[in-house]
């Protein structure tokens, strides 16, 4: 089987949790998988892997700079092997189509800015962790959540990740790496 690098940037931990689930799904298929948080660890050289998945979350309208730097530094290596990109974003769970389109637009902006074209792309809902926020951040996110999800009870946390979509993305990427599927599954944005 293949060796796969799953690297990501995370701010509040949901992207790390998703990366872990993707890694578990790939391991179940017999692949050797290493996960690396690009925000806190020296990035592994992707040349040492058969395939690479890159994940990032959106905060204040942008992805983690460590993820962007990794892709910029390894663009040619990434282009030479199967790759995928997954984004974690609260906006994707909004009922408003314009807000969902904005979430998809972040992916487009990232691809354009890095000149990298991953083979597989997915966008997943994130989480609101009111219990971990300070007073000011809790109030700001409560205001944002009011319009997006309506979940403004700050006495509890909310998780919006569709774990079945995460499992489908991992399976689709494994199929692609294994040569069982040449074309991306539809839709590219699985959530």
What are the defining features of this structure?
Rossmann fold, 2 domains, globular, 5-stranded parallel sheet, about 190 residues, alpha/beta, Flavodoxin/NO_synth, single chain, 7 strands, FMN binding, 5 helices, Flavoprotein-like_sf
What would CATH call the architecture of the largest domain? 3-Layer(aba) Sandwich
Distance between the termini: 28 Å
CATH class group of the largest domain: Alpha Beta
Helix fraction by DSSP (H/I, runs of at least 4):
40-55%
Low-confidence stretches: none
Counted up, domains total: 2
Number of strands: 7
Report the sheet with the most strands, covering strand number, pairing sense and barrel closure: 5 strands, parallel
Q: Could you say which structural class the secondary elements and strand pairing correspond to?
A: alpha/beta
- The CATH homologous superfamily of the largest domain is named Flavodoxin domain
Element order: H for helix, E for strand: EHEEHEHEEHEH
Cα-atom radius of gyration: 16 Å
Kindly report the CATH topology of the largest domain.
Rossmann fold
**Roughly what fraction of the amino acids lie in strands?**
15-25%
Structural shape: globular
Explain how this protein is built.
This protein is of the alpha/beta class and 191 residues long. The protein folds into two domains: 3-126 and 161-177, Rossmann fold; 128-160, no CATH class. It has five helices and seven strands. Strand 1 (3-8), helix 1 (14-28) and strand 2 form a beta-alpha-beta unit. The radius of gyration is 16 Å and the shape is globular. The mean pLDDT is 87.
